[in-house]
## 1
Amino acid sequence: MARGTFITLEGGEGSGKSTLVRELTDRLTATGREVLATREPGGIPIAEAIREIILHVDNTAMDPLTEALLYAAARRQHLAEKVLPALERGAVVICDRFVDSSLAYQGYARGLGIESIWEINRFAIESRMPDLTLYLDIEPEIGLSRLEAGGRTKVDRLDLEGMDFHRMVREGYRKVAGMFPERFVTLDASVSQQDLADKAWQYLSDALARL
Ligand code: TMP
């Protein structure tokens, strides 16, 4: 069994995951721990290439099951090539999105079924689940308006989805939270970045002391 600690961050668009990854990485590094900050889909060249295919605006013909399988394939490669070796070394891995994204986006919002998506992902990750998942909960309207205000430059295929899709994603996350209460923590992401980081840090420190 790996010695490290596997932390994932989840949330809808504009929930502040990337900023929180940086903040938690800085705080953890200051304690002397080895920290690996990474993201899905991507984090390594093969998975970044799969990300390009999934999110390319031209790929509107992509079948929803193909999309789900590509996310699972990117996840598998990233886990095997980057996350597991880091955990073996005893590092703390902070990953921006993991299996819960597929459960909420593909399983629930796309309507493929949380159970079916869980099946393909369980196969892909060989049941290696996070030790702690911080879910940044925010109204989709607020999240998306933050992205606009931040002057986002790149639009991907999922950005073309309407507000109903993003509401479904949020509902999906609530269902996933109910499935995994032992590792899933819901944080109110409408508060200031500082307050969110402080709250997240409390949960992270507790988990590190416990695990
Ligand atoms: P990002 O914008 O957080 O980098 O994520 C890229 C997009 O991919 C985002 O819209 C969420 C979506 N996504 C899924 O639909 N399923 C998944 O399993 C993952 C990891 C991401």
## 2
Amino acid sequence: MDNPSILEISIQNDGVALLVLNRPTARNALNLELRQALSDAFIQLQQNPAVRAIVITGGSQVFAAGADIKDFTTATTAQMYLRRTEQYWQSITDCSKPIIAAVNGYALGGGCELAMHADIIIASKSAQFGQPEVKLGLMPGAGGTQRLLRAVGKYKAMLLLLSGKFISAEHAYNMGLVSEVVEEEKTIGHALELAKTIAAYAPIAVQQIKEVAQLGSDMPLQAGLALERKAFQILFDTQDQKEGINAFFEKRPAQYTGE
Ligand code: CAA
């Protein structure tokens, strides 16, 4: 990594990788260095066959307070264009492995958008979510208008996008932005346990579920159902599918190899 101190990466022997954003003095704001580090990390983890699930967190205090506002002070349109920040986000979007966001504290603006790049969001009771860019004379630029809309529907999304207000984890859960709400001290541990469970499943099946759910959500129903059917059929050519079925009948835990 370019600067391991702003993004800590640890790979555990249960197939789970843990990424911890570490810019506490700026509330984990996503400056260009941190975005680059995140992008590099996701490329690395995608290529590492030992990694089967990824947990991303900002630690115990804050998930991320959004883009680093200092980067916006004097930026012109051309400079913003030339930054091509979409490339950093794309490495996360392209990750075929399951991603779990463990959110403590604020997930705002680009921080909320980062959480929405995950497949599952675990939030602590005191977490807060929001897209406050409108208060800065701006708007979301990393998927907030699109992913939030798809996650929670037009009227709840527009309330957050246009008011810039922060909402509690419970509120976010009720609107469908959060998968589970847990006690403060349990957020990261719970996300790691969940990741461990998923990492022990057959990786091709897990990744096919992710791919079909992601692609299918933007497809007409019949096309999505066909995609699902084909992916389901493809799994019958994996050793892990046979192992899963045999283990069930032999009443033992399955040992998946990823083949
Ligand atoms: N960028 C840069 N610095 C930030 C920051 C950010 N997004 N958020 C917080 N900081 C800095 C503050 O400037 C402050 O620095 P100093 O100590 O040097 O003054 C430090 O972090 C602590 O901040 P606060 O004193 O404000 O801490 P707090 O706990 O009282 O409040 C907060 C925390 C609610 C997150 C508040 O800092 C805040 O509202 N931050 C801005 C949130 C925001 O507007 N995010 C959207 C950014 S735009 C965006 O995200 C667009 C995009 O992705 C495309």
